[in-house]
Each structure stands twice: as C-alpha cells, then as structure tokens.
Amino acid sequence: MKGLIKFEEVAMLAFSAWLFSTTGYAWYWFWVFLLAPDISMIGYLAGPRIGAWSYNFFHHKALGLFLIFAGWFALAPLITAVGIVLFGHSSMDRAFGYGLKFTDDFKHTHLGWIGKGDV
Q: For a tag on the chain, would you pick the N or C end, based on fewer CB atoms within 10 A?
C-alpha cells in the first residue's frame, strides 16, 4: 500500500510540473523553486511548536490548492504558479516520506516516524 501511495504522490508532482508549464513561465522555474517551501523550517529556530506550525502551513496541500484557484480567479498567474509549486513540493515530500509535523519532534510526522522504518 505504501508503494501505491508514493506512486500517487509522484503522479501529483508530475501533474504539478505539467500544470506549471501552462502558466506561461519557463518550465525550469518550477524546478528552481521546488525546494523553496523548506525555508519554512526556519521556524524551528523558535522551537518545535512554532517550527511545526510554520512547516505545516507551507506544506499543506490545501494552501497550494487555494493559491492555485485564487490566482486563477484573480487572473494573477504568479499566485497560481506559487500555488502549483507549493502543491508539487508537498507531493514530493510525501513521496519521500516527509509528512506534516507533530510538535514533539521534527521526525514525528502524520506518515509515521522519519528514519524508523515505518515511513
């Protein structure tokens, strides 16, 4: 089952890359900014609670979807592109086993513990 779920996440990442290509921006910008949402980990400098909140906010697929639709309805392609990158990044992270974080430990995610064999 885990393999099937990872395949689904990879498919969503590939869809995001394709969707980005429809925005009018050069295709390579998707790959340039794909790791940008990980800047949100800087919140961990303020402690695990704030770190988990900031990480989860920028890694929640609903935020990406909201920005995609908000940009589309507002005719703001940059906002749409940012949403696509956020959505694609979240899918990539989940394909690698990195999920949304609990406040007790960075390695404790909604997918299980990172590095303990159950992710």
A: N
